[in-house]
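Form 7-S
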Amino acid sequence: MPVITRSDLQYEYSWTPVNGDNPKLTGKPDDVLLNRKEGYEVLAFLVHFCRSWNDADGKPLTRAHALKAERLIHLHLPSDVRSRMDVSEWLADNWESYT
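Output:
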């Protein structure tokens, strides 16, 4: 079971994919850029982020971590940070700066 689900998300998103951008048809979220307004992209990113990183004690990230990451993306992530890798790195670098 994923660490976070659609019903857990704290913000409003679009759930209507643009033509050619439907992960149900392509099998994965599009390209390397994260669209912060598309719910399925944010959700997939958060699940992947939580599976890829550990907390300070080396334990897997939890739903609470996923919700914090969502909040940081929504409220604090600079607009010029767009690639999934850059978003992950920004979260890791700035995690302790925000509650």
